[in-house]
Design brief:
alpha/beta; Rossmann fold; Isoleucyl-tRNA Synthetase, Domain 1; 3 domains; 5-stranded mixed beta sheet; 4-stranded parallel beta sheet; binds adenosine monophosphate; binds zinc ion; cysteine-tRNA ligase activity
Protein backbone atom coordinates (compact mmCIF):
# COMPACT_ATOMS: atom_id res chain seq x y z
CA UNK A 1 0.00 0.00 0.00
CA UNK A 2 1.38 3.46 -0.87
CA UNK A 3 0.17 6.50 0.98
CA UNK A 4 0.68 10.05 -0.17
CA UNK A 5 4.05 11.30 1.01
CA UNK A 6 2.89 14.59 2.44
CA UNK A 7 6.37 15.58 3.63
CA UNK A 8 7.76 15.31 0.15
CA UNK A 9 4.78 17.25 -1.08
CA UNK A 10 4.87 20.12 1.36
CA UNK A 11 5.87 22.62 -1.29
CA UNK A 12 6.34 26.00 0.29
CA UNK A 13 7.78 29.39 -0.35
CA UNK A 14 11.29 28.20 0.56
CA UNK A 15 11.50 25.10 -1.61
CA UNK A 16 9.30 26.38 -4.43
CA UNK A 17 10.08 30.04 -5.29
CA UNK A 18 7.19 32.06 -6.70
CA UNK A 19 7.80 33.86 -9.97
CA UNK A 20 5.54 36.81 -10.79
CA UNK A 21 5.57 39.12 -13.78
CA UNK A 22 6.54 42.65 -12.77
CA UNK A 23 4.89 45.22 -15.04
CA UNK A 24 7.47 47.86 -14.25
CA UNK A 25 10.48 45.68 -15.08
CA UNK A 26 8.60 43.75 -17.80
CA UNK A 27 10.02 40.41 -16.65
CA UNK A 28 9.09 37.59 -14.33
CA UNK A 29 10.83 38.05 -10.99
CA UNK A 30 11.23 35.82 -7.97
CA UNK A 31 9.10 37.14 -5.15
CA UNK A 32 11.04 38.15 -2.05
CA UNK A 33 9.13 37.91 1.24
CA UNK A 34 10.85 39.32 4.28
CA UNK A 35 9.98 37.32 7.41
CA UNK A 36 7.50 35.29 5.35
CA UNK A 37 5.14 38.28 5.02
CA UNK A 38 3.75 40.09 2.01
CA UNK A 39 2.06 43.47 1.97
CA UNK A 40 -0.47 43.73 -0.84
CA UNK A 41 -2.33 46.83 -2.01
CA UNK A 42 -5.24 46.36 -4.38
CA UNK A 43 -7.14 49.28 -5.91
CA UNK A 44 -10.78 48.87 -4.94
CA UNK A 45 -14.11 49.98 -6.36
CA UNK A 46 -15.51 53.45 -6.80
CA UNK A 47 -18.78 53.02 -4.95
CA UNK A 48 -21.15 54.98 -7.18
CA UNK A 49 -22.84 51.91 -8.69
CA UNK A 50 -22.73 48.10 -8.52
CA UNK A 51 -19.38 46.65 -9.60
CA UNK A 52 -19.58 44.80 -12.94
CA UNK A 53 -18.07 41.41 -13.71
CA UNK A 54 -15.15 43.14 -15.48
CA UNK A 55 -14.21 44.70 -12.15
CA UNK A 56 -14.66 41.29 -10.55
CA UNK A 57 -12.25 39.72 -13.00
CA UNK A 58 -9.57 41.87 -11.43
CA UNK A 59 -10.77 41.17 -7.88
CA UNK A 60 -10.95 37.40 -8.51
CA UNK A 61 -7.41 37.51 -9.89
CA UNK A 62 -6.28 39.36 -6.77
CA UNK A 63 -8.00 36.70 -4.68
CA UNK A 64 -6.12 34.00 -6.58
CA UNK A 65 -2.87 35.84 -5.89
CA UNK A 66 -3.67 36.20 -2.20
CA UNK A 67 -4.76 32.58 -1.79
CA UNK A 68 -1.69 31.33 -3.71
CA UNK A 69 0.68 33.28 -1.47
CA UNK A 70 -1.04 31.75 1.56
CA UNK A 71 -0.98 28.28 -0.03
CA UNK A 72 2.80 28.57 -0.13
CA UNK A 73 2.87 29.47 3.56
CA UNK A 74 3.19 33.26 3.36
CA UNK A 75 1.34 35.70 5.60
CA UNK A 76 -0.53 38.34 3.65
CA UNK A 77 -1.66 41.77 4.74
CA UNK A 78 -3.95 43.08 2.03
CA UNK A 79 -5.51 46.51 1.80
CA UNK A 80 -8.29 47.29 -0.65
CA UNK A 81 -9.56 50.86 -0.68
CA UNK A 82 -13.11 52.01 -1.26
CA UNK A 83 -13.21 55.18 -3.32
CA UNK A 84 -16.16 56.96 -1.76
CA UNK A 85 -15.28 60.47 -2.87
CA UNK A 86 -14.47 61.42 -6.48
CA UNK A 87 -16.14 63.11 -9.45
CA UNK A 88 -18.65 60.28 -9.94
CA UNK A 89 -19.75 59.74 -6.31
CA UNK A 90 -20.23 63.47 -5.79
CA UNK A 91 -22.26 63.75 -8.97
CA UNK A 92 -24.45 60.81 -7.89
CA UNK A 93 -25.08 62.20 -4.40
CA UNK A 94 -26.01 65.64 -5.75
CA UNK A 95 -28.34 64.16 -8.38
CA UNK A 96 -30.21 62.27 -5.64
CA UNK A 97 -30.10 65.18 -3.21
CA UNK A 98 -28.57 63.06 -0.41
CA UNK A 99 -25.31 63.08 1.54
CA UNK A 100 -22.23 61.45 0.06
CA UNK A 101 -22.33 58.77 2.75
CA UNK A 102 -26.01 58.00 2.20
CA UNK A 103 -25.29 57.65 -1.52
CA UNK A 104 -22.22 55.39 -1.27
CA UNK A 105 -23.21 53.12 1.67
CA UNK A 106 -25.63 50.86 -0.26
CA UNK A 107 -22.96 50.29 -2.95
CA UNK A 108 -20.35 49.47 -0.29
CA UNK A 109 -22.77 46.94 1.24
CA UNK A 110 -23.55 45.44 -2.18
CA UNK A 111 -19.83 45.15 -2.93
CA UNK A 112 -19.19 43.09 0.21
CA UNK A 113 -22.17 40.88 -0.58
CA UNK A 114 -20.81 40.27 -4.08
CA UNK A 115 -17.35 39.44 -2.73
CA UNK A 116 -18.90 36.79 -0.49
CA UNK A 117 -20.97 35.36 -3.38
CA UNK A 118 -17.78 35.01 -5.41
CA UNK A 119 -15.89 33.36 -2.52
CA UNK A 120 -13.38 36.19 -2.50
CA UNK A 121 -11.49 36.06 0.78
CA UNK A 122 -11.79 39.35 2.68
CA UNK A 123 -8.78 41.68 2.70
CA UNK A 124 -7.39 42.63 6.11
CA UNK A 125 -8.43 46.30 5.72
CA UNK A 126 -10.98 48.11 3.53
CA UNK A 127 -10.24 51.80 4.15
CA UNK A 128 -12.74 54.34 2.85
CA UNK A 129 -11.16 57.41 1.29
CA UNK A 130 -13.36 59.77 3.32
CA UNK A 131 -11.75 58.43 6.52
CA UNK A 132 -8.26 59.39 5.31
CA UNK A 133 -8.69 63.04 4.29
CA UNK A 134 -6.27 64.30 6.97
CA UNK A 135 -3.32 62.07 5.87
CA UNK A 136 -4.05 63.19 2.29
CA UNK A 137 -3.85 66.86 3.30
CA UNK A 138 -0.56 66.16 5.08
CA UNK A 139 0.85 64.47 1.97
CA UNK A 140 -0.08 67.46 -0.17
CA UNK A 141 1.60 69.79 2.32
CA UNK A 142 4.80 67.69 2.16
CA UNK A 143 4.69 67.75 -1.65
CA UNK A 144 4.30 71.56 -1.62
CA UNK A 145 7.13 71.92 0.93
CA UNK A 146 9.41 69.72 -1.19
CA UNK A 147 8.62 71.65 -4.37
CA UNK A 148 6.65 68.92 -6.17
CA UNK A 149 3.26 70.64 -5.95
CA UNK A 150 1.92 74.11 -6.66
CA UNK A 151 -1.33 76.06 -6.64
CA UNK A 152 -2.89 76.60 -10.05
CA UNK A 153 -4.79 79.71 -11.11
CA UNK A 154 -8.05 77.88 -10.47
CA UNK A 155 -7.07 77.49 -6.78
CA UNK A 156 -6.51 73.72 -7.05
CA UNK A 157 -3.20 72.07 -6.11
CA UNK A 158 -1.32 70.26 -8.89
CA UNK A 159 1.60 67.86 -9.03
CA UNK A 160 4.47 69.06 -11.26
CA UNK A 161 5.43 65.89 -13.10
CA UNK A 162 8.61 67.46 -14.53
CA UNK A 163 9.99 67.61 -10.98
CA UNK A 164 9.89 63.83 -10.70
CA UNK A 165 12.43 62.30 -13.11
CA UNK A 166 11.05 58.78 -12.71
CA UNK A 167 7.61 59.89 -14.01
CA UNK A 168 6.58 57.40 -16.70
CA UNK A 169 8.61 54.47 -15.28
CA UNK A 170 5.62 52.14 -15.01
CA UNK A 171 3.89 52.81 -18.31
CA UNK A 172 7.26 53.43 -19.99
CA UNK A 173 6.48 56.95 -21.14
CA UNK A 174 9.28 59.17 -22.34
CA UNK A 175 8.42 62.63 -21.07
CA UNK A 176 11.00 64.31 -23.30
CA UNK A 177 9.15 63.10 -26.35
CA UNK A 178 5.82 64.39 -25.10
CA UNK A 179 4.63 67.97 -25.02
CA UNK A 180 3.96 68.37 -21.32
CA UNK A 181 4.59 71.01 -18.77
CA UNK A 182 3.19 73.26 -16.10
CA UNK A 183 1.16 75.12 -18.66
CA UNK A 184 -0.88 71.97 -19.24
CA UNK A 185 -2.91 70.70 -16.35
CA UNK A 186 -5.65 68.19 -15.91
CA UNK A 187 -8.26 68.53 -13.21
CA UNK A 188 -10.24 65.39 -14.11
CA UNK A 189 -9.35 62.14 -12.31
CA UNK A 190 -9.37 60.06 -15.47
CA UNK A 191 -7.48 60.89 -18.66
CA UNK A 192 -5.35 59.04 -21.19
CA UNK A 193 -1.74 59.01 -22.35
CA UNK A 194 -2.49 61.61 -25.01
CA UNK A 195 -3.09 64.05 -22.20
CA UNK A 196 -0.08 63.50 -19.97
CA UNK A 197 0.17 66.57 -17.80
CA UNK A 198 0.35 67.92 -14.27
CA UNK A 199 -2.45 66.28 -12.34
CA UNK A 200 -4.66 67.46 -9.53
CA UNK A 201 -3.96 66.65 -5.86
CA UNK A 202 -6.58 68.90 -4.25
CA UNK A 203 -9.61 70.15 -6.13
CA UNK A 204 -10.70 73.61 -5.15
CA UNK A 205 -14.34 73.71 -3.97
CA UNK A 206 -16.83 74.63 -6.65
CA UNK A 207 -20.36 75.09 -5.18
CA UNK A 208 -21.98 74.51 -8.59
CA UNK A 209 -20.21 71.18 -9.06
CA UNK A 210 -19.79 69.97 -5.47
CA UNK A 211 -22.98 71.09 -3.69
CA UNK A 212 -22.27 70.85 0.03
CA UNK A 213 -19.48 68.30 -0.32
CA UNK A 214 -16.07 69.68 0.67
CA UNK A 215 -13.40 69.50 3.38
CA UNK A 216 -11.43 72.40 4.88
CA UNK A 217 -7.69 72.42 4.35
CA UNK A 218 -4.70 74.81 4.52
CA UNK A 219 -5.12 75.20 0.73
CA UNK A 220 -8.76 76.21 1.02
CA UNK A 221 -11.97 74.13 0.97
CA UNK A 222 -12.09 71.29 -1.51
CA UNK A 223 -11.46 67.55 -1.84
CA UNK A 224 -8.63 65.21 -2.74
CA UNK A 225 -7.88 63.93 -6.25
CA UNK A 226 -8.51 60.22 -6.81
CA UNK A 227 -4.84 59.30 -7.33
CA UNK A 228 -3.80 60.78 -4.01
CA UNK A 229 -6.32 58.67 -2.13
CA UNK A 230 -4.55 55.38 -2.89
CA UNK A 231 -1.07 56.77 -2.12
CA UNK A 232 -2.18 58.06 1.27
CA UNK A 233 -4.13 54.94 2.31
CA UNK A 234 -1.43 52.54 1.09
CA UNK A 235 1.35 54.34 2.97
CA UNK A 236 -0.70 54.83 6.13
CA UNK A 237 -1.67 51.18 6.36
CA UNK A 238 1.25 49.32 4.76
CA UNK A 239 4.23 51.65 5.15
CA UNK A 240 6.39 53.57 2.66
CA UNK A 241 7.30 50.49 0.62
CA UNK A 242 4.75 47.85 -0.41
CA UNK A 243 5.66 44.38 -1.67
CA UNK A 244 2.96 43.97 -4.33
CA UNK A 245 0.52 46.50 -5.79
CA UNK A 246 -2.20 45.27 -8.14
CA UNK A 247 -4.95 46.63 -10.36
CA UNK A 248 -6.47 46.27 -13.81
CA UNK A 249 -4.36 47.35 -16.82
CA UNK A 250 -6.39 50.54 -17.17
CA UNK A 251 -5.07 51.62 -13.76
CA UNK A 252 -1.47 51.61 -14.96
CA UNK A 253 -1.75 55.06 -16.51
CA UNK A 254 -2.37 57.56 -15.08
CA UNK A 255 -3.49 56.17 -11.72
CA UNK A 256 -0.52 54.01 -10.70
CA UNK A 257 1.99 56.27 -12.40
CA UNK A 258 0.66 59.14 -10.30
CA UNK A 259 0.68 57.03 -7.13
CA UNK A 260 4.42 56.37 -7.64
CA UNK A 261 5.14 60.05 -8.23
CA UNK A 262 3.23 61.20 -5.13
CA UNK A 263 4.48 58.49 -2.75
CA UNK A 264 8.13 58.47 -3.76
CA UNK A 265 8.37 62.27 -3.79
CA UNK A 266 7.01 62.27 -0.22
CA UNK A 267 9.02 59.42 1.30
CA UNK A 268 12.15 59.37 -0.84
CA UNK A 269 11.79 55.56 -0.91
CA UNK A 270 10.67 52.99 -3.46
CA UNK A 271 6.87 52.86 -3.27
CA UNK A 272 6.23 49.39 -4.74
CA UNK A 273 8.61 46.47 -5.24
CA UNK A 274 6.36 44.49 -7.55
CA UNK A 275 3.58 45.81 -9.83
CA UNK A 276 1.00 43.44 -11.31
CA UNK A 277 -1.84 44.24 -13.72
CA UNK A 278 -4.76 42.08 -14.79
CA UNK A 279 -5.93 42.19 -18.41
CA UNK A 280 -9.51 43.14 -19.10
CA UNK A 281 -12.69 41.22 -19.39
CA UNK A 282 -13.96 42.10 -22.84
CA UNK A 283 -17.26 41.82 -24.70
CA UNK A 284 -17.24 41.75 -28.52
CA UNK A 285 -13.61 42.87 -28.50
CA UNK A 286 -14.22 45.88 -26.25
CA UNK A 287 -13.42 46.43 -22.57
CA UNK A 288 -16.47 45.81 -20.37
CA UNK A 289 -17.17 49.17 -18.75
CA UNK A 290 -19.96 51.20 -17.29
CA UNK A 291 -19.33 54.10 -19.66
CA UNK A 292 -19.70 51.83 -22.72
CA UNK A 293 -22.90 50.34 -21.31
CA UNK A 294 -21.74 46.83 -22.32
CA UNK A 295 -21.63 45.41 -18.81
CA UNK A 296 -23.26 42.80 -16.61
CA UNK A 297 -23.27 43.02 -12.86
CA UNK A 298 -22.96 39.86 -10.80
CA UNK A 299 -26.61 40.36 -9.88
CA UNK A 300 -27.59 40.26 -13.57
CA UNK A 301 -25.96 36.84 -13.93
CA UNK A 302 -27.46 35.49 -10.70
CA UNK A 303 -30.88 36.57 -11.98
CA UNK A 304 -30.23 34.50 -15.12
CA UNK A 305 -29.75 31.41 -12.96
CA UNK A 306 -25.96 31.24 -12.71
CA UNK A 307 -24.33 30.72 -9.33
CA UNK A 308 -21.57 32.75 -7.72
CA UNK A 309 -19.20 29.80 -7.99
CA UNK A 310 -19.89 29.48 -11.73
CA UNK A 311 -19.10 33.15 -12.26
CA UNK A 312 -16.00 32.82 -10.07
CA UNK A 313 -14.74 29.87 -12.08
CA UNK A 314 -15.42 31.67 -15.37
CA UNK A 315 -13.37 34.68 -14.20
CA UNK A 316 -10.64 32.54 -12.67
CA UNK A 317 -9.85 30.07 -15.42
CA UNK A 318 -7.99 32.31 -17.86
CA UNK A 319 -4.48 33.53 -17.07
CA UNK A 320 -4.60 37.09 -15.77
CA UNK A 321 -2.33 38.43 -18.50
CA UNK A 322 -4.69 37.26 -21.24
CA UNK A 323 -7.89 39.12 -22.09
CA UNK A 324 -10.99 37.14 -21.21
CA UNK A 325 -13.86 37.25 -23.68
CA UNK A 326 -17.21 37.06 -21.90
CA UNK A 327 -19.95 34.93 -23.48
CA UNK A 328 -22.92 33.00 -22.13
CA UNK A 329 -21.66 29.91 -24.00
CA UNK A 330 -18.49 30.23 -21.89
CA UNK A 331 -20.60 30.27 -18.72
CA UNK A 332 -22.49 27.16 -19.86
CA UNK A 333 -19.17 25.39 -20.44
CA UNK A 334 -18.10 26.36 -16.93
CA UNK A 335 -21.29 24.88 -15.51
CA UNK A 336 -20.48 21.64 -17.28
CA UNK A 337 -16.89 21.53 -15.95
CA UNK A 338 -18.01 22.22 -12.41
CA UNK A 339 -20.63 19.49 -12.63
CA UNK A 340 -17.88 17.09 -13.64
CA UNK A 341 -15.87 17.98 -10.55
CA UNK A 342 -18.90 17.78 -8.25
CA UNK A 343 -19.96 14.41 -9.69
CA UNK A 344 -16.41 13.21 -9.11
CA UNK A 345 -16.44 14.43 -5.50
CA UNK A 346 -19.74 12.66 -4.89
CA UNK A 347 -18.46 9.47 -6.45
CA UNK A 348 -15.38 9.47 -4.21
CA UNK A 349 -17.48 10.32 -1.14
CA UNK A 350 -19.59 7.23 -1.77
CA UNK A 351 -16.68 4.78 -1.78
CA UNK A 352 -17.26 2.44 1.14
CA UNK A 353 -15.98 -1.00 2.07
CA UNK A 354 -13.23 -1.10 -0.60
CA UNK A 355 -9.64 -2.14 0.02
CA UNK A 356 -6.81 0.21 -0.93
CA UNK A 357 -4.85 -0.68 -4.05
CA UNK A 358 -1.83 1.63 -3.85
CA UNK A 359 -2.67 3.18 -7.23
CA UNK A 360 -3.98 6.50 -5.95
CA UNK A 361 -1.02 8.03 -4.10
CA UNK A 362 1.20 8.52 -7.18
CA UNK A 363 -1.66 10.27 -8.98
CA UNK A 364 -2.23 12.68 -6.08
CA UNK A 365 1.46 13.38 -5.69
CA UNK A 366 1.88 14.09 -9.37
CA UNK A 367 -1.16 16.34 -9.44
CA UNK A 368 -0.23 18.35 -6.37
CA UNK A 369 3.24 18.89 -7.71
CA UNK A 370 1.97 20.03 -11.13
CA UNK A 371 -0.70 22.23 -9.54
CA UNK A 372 1.73 24.00 -7.18
CA UNK A 373 4.43 24.41 -9.82
CA UNK A 374 1.94 25.97 -12.22
CA UNK A 375 0.75 28.49 -9.65
CA UNK A 376 4.31 29.36 -8.68
CA UNK A 377 4.92 30.16 -12.34
CA UNK A 378 3.15 33.53 -12.46
CA UNK A 379 -0.19 32.02 -11.38
CA UNK A 380 -0.57 29.76 -14.40
CA UNK A 381 -4.10 28.74 -13.55
CA UNK A 382 -4.83 27.05 -16.89
CA UNK A 383 -2.01 24.54 -16.33
CA UNK A 384 -3.05 24.07 -12.70
CA UNK A 385 -6.65 23.29 -13.72
CA UNK A 386 -5.49 20.99 -16.51
CA UNK A 387 -3.60 18.97 -13.85
CA UNK A 388 -6.79 18.73 -11.79
CA UNK A 389 -8.91 17.49 -14.71
CA UNK A 390 -6.25 14.97 -15.70
CA UNK A 391 -6.36 13.64 -12.14
CA UNK A 392 -10.14 13.34 -12.26
CA UNK A 393 -9.86 11.36 -15.49
CA UNK A 394 -7.23 9.02 -14.03
CA UNK A 395 -9.01 8.43 -10.74
CA UNK A 396 -12.34 7.87 -12.48
CA UNK A 397 -10.63 5.11 -14.44
CA UNK A 398 -9.29 3.63 -11.20
CA UNK A 399 -12.80 3.82 -9.69
CA UNK A 400 -14.22 2.00 -12.73
CA UNK A 401 -11.76 -0.80 -12.04
CA UNK A 402 -12.58 -0.85 -8.32
CA UNK A 403 -9.04 0.23 -7.45
CA UNK A 404 -9.84 3.05 -5.03
CA UNK A 405 -10.07 2.00 -1.39
CA UNK A 406 -11.68 3.75 1.59
CA UNK A 407 -8.59 5.47 2.94
CA UNK A 408 -7.50 6.35 -0.57
CA UNK A 409 -10.88 8.00 -1.13
CA UNK A 410 -10.29 9.99 2.06
CA UNK A 411 -6.88 11.08 0.74
CA UNK A 412 -8.40 12.23 -2.54
CA UNK A 413 -10.94 14.34 -0.66
CA UNK A 414 -8.23 15.78 1.59
CA UNK A 415 -6.22 16.69 -1.49
CA UNK A 416 -9.22 18.39 -3.11
CA UNK A 417 -9.83 20.33 0.08
CA UNK A 418 -6.22 21.47 0.04
CA UNK A 419 -6.36 22.80 -3.50
CA UNK A 420 -9.77 24.28 -2.81
CA UNK A 421 -8.01 26.69 -0.44
CA UNK A 422 -6.78 28.29 -3.66
CA UNK A 423 -9.65 27.62 -6.06
CA UNK A 424 -12.64 27.98 -3.70
CA UNK A 425 -15.01 26.33 -6.19
CA UNK A 426 -15.79 22.88 -4.76
CA UNK A 427 -18.59 21.90 -2.42
CA UNK A 428 -18.04 18.98 -0.08
CA UNK A 429 -21.39 19.03 1.69
CA UNK A 430 -23.83 16.66 0.10
CA UNK A 431 -26.39 18.99 -1.37
CA UNK A 432 -29.95 18.01 -0.68
CA UNK A 433 -31.50 18.54 -4.10
CA UNK A 434 -35.02 19.90 -3.95
CA UNK A 435 -36.64 17.08 -5.90
CA UNK A 436 -40.42 17.43 -6.14
CA UNK A 437 -42.28 14.85 -4.01
CA UNK A 438 -44.40 13.65 -6.97
CA UNK A 439 -41.20 12.65 -8.79
CA UNK A 440 -39.80 10.89 -5.72
CA UNK A 441 -43.11 8.95 -5.61
CA UNK A 442 -42.86 8.18 -9.34
CA UNK A 443 -39.36 6.77 -8.78
CA UNK A 444 -40.65 4.58 -5.96
CA UNK A 445 -43.51 3.30 -8.14
CA UNK A 446 -41.07 2.64 -10.98
CA UNK A 447 -38.93 0.49 -8.67
CA UNK A 448 -42.02 -1.51 -7.73
CA UNK A 449 -43.06 -1.83 -11.41
CA UNK A 450 -39.59 -3.15 -12.28
CA UNK A 451 -39.68 -5.65 -9.42
CA UNK A 452 -43.05 -6.83 -10.81
CA UNK A 453 -41.52 -6.93 -14.33
CA UNK A 454 -44.17 -4.45 -15.45
CA UNK A 455 -41.83 -2.93 -18.04
CA UNK A 456 -44.36 -0.73 -19.83
CA UNK A 457 -45.37 0.93 -16.53
CA UNK A 458 -41.71 1.33 -15.55
CA UNK A 459 -40.99 3.01 -18.91
CA UNK A 460 -44.02 5.29 -18.56
CA UNK A 461 -42.82 6.46 -15.14
CA UNK A 462 -39.27 6.95 -16.44
CA UNK A 463 -40.61 9.14 -19.27
CA UNK A 464 -42.73 11.10 -16.80
CA UNK A 465 -39.65 11.77 -14.65
CA UNK A 466 -37.67 12.71 -17.73
CA UNK A 467 -40.31 15.16 -18.91
CA UNK A 468 -39.87 16.99 -15.58
CA UNK A 469 -36.17 17.49 -16.23
CA UNK A 470 -34.72 14.58 -14.24
CA UNK A 471 -32.92 11.37 -15.17
CA UNK A 472 -32.69 8.18 -13.18
CA UNK A 473 -29.17 7.33 -12.14
CA UNK A 474 -28.28 3.91 -10.77
CA UNK A 475 -25.76 3.90 -7.95
CA UNK A 476 -24.58 1.52 -5.26
CA UNK A 477 -27.26 2.96 -3.01
CA UNK A 478 -29.99 2.20 -5.54
CA UNK A 479 -31.71 4.35 -8.15
CA UNK A 480 -31.88 8.13 -7.58
CA UNK A 481 -32.91 11.23 -9.49
CA UNK A 482 -30.50 13.72 -11.02
CA UNK A 483 -31.43 17.02 -12.62
CA UNK A 484 -30.68 17.23 -16.33
CA UNK A 485 -28.27 20.02 -17.16
CA UNK A 486 -29.84 22.52 -19.48
CA UNK A 487 -28.17 25.30 -21.39
CA UNK A 488 -29.25 28.68 -20.04
CA UNK A 489 -29.20 30.36 -23.45
P1 LIG B 1 -13.08 51.21 -11.04
O1 LIG B 1 -14.25 51.00 -10.11
O2 LIG B 1 -13.44 51.66 -12.40
O3 LIG B 1 -12.01 52.08 -10.39
O4 LIG B 1 -12.39 49.78 -11.27
C1 LIG B 1 -12.06 48.91 -10.21
C2 LIG B 1 -11.09 47.86 -10.70
O5 LIG B 1 -11.64 47.08 -11.77
C3 LIG B 1 -9.78 48.44 -11.25
O6 LIG B 1 -8.69 47.65 -10.80
C4 LIG B 1 -9.96 48.34 -12.76
O7 LIG B 1 -8.73 48.25 -13.41
C5 LIG B 1 -10.74 47.04 -12.88
N1 LIG B 1 -11.53 46.94 -14.14
C6 LIG B 1 -12.38 47.84 -14.67
N2 LIG B 1 -12.93 47.36 -15.83
C7 LIG B 1 -12.42 46.12 -16.02
C8 LIG B 1 -12.59 45.09 -17.04
N3 LIG B 1 -13.41 45.23 -18.07
N4 LIG B 1 -11.88 43.94 -16.90
C9 LIG B 1 -11.05 43.76 -15.83
N5 LIG B 1 -10.84 44.67 -14.85
C10 LIG B 1 -11.51 45.84 -14.94
ZN1 LIG C 1 -5.79 52.95 -6.60
Amino acid sequence: MTFVDTKRLSLNFTNCPIQLFNTEKRVKETLVAEKGQITLYTCGPTVYNFAHIGNFRTYVFEDLLRRTLKFFGLKVKQVMNLTDVDDKTIKGAIAKGITLNAFTQPYKDAFFQDLATLHIEPAEVYPAATDYIQPMIEMIQTLIDKGFAYKGQDGSIYYAIRKFPRYGCLSHLKLDELKVGASERVAADEYDKENVSDFVLWKNYDPQRDGEIYWDSPFGPGRPGWHLECSAMAMQLLGDTIDIHVGGVDNMFPHHENEIAQSEACSGKTFVKHWMHAEHLIVDGKKMSKSMGNFYTLRDLLAKGFSGVEVRYMLLQTHYKTQLNFTFEGLDAVRHSLRRVQDFIRRVQEIKGSADSGSVAPVIERTLYAFAKALADDLNISVALAALFEMIREINTLCDKGLVGDSEAAEILEFLQKINQVLAIFTFEVQAEQIPQELQDALEQRNIARQNKNWSEADRLRDLIHSHGYIIEDSVKGARLKKIERSTK
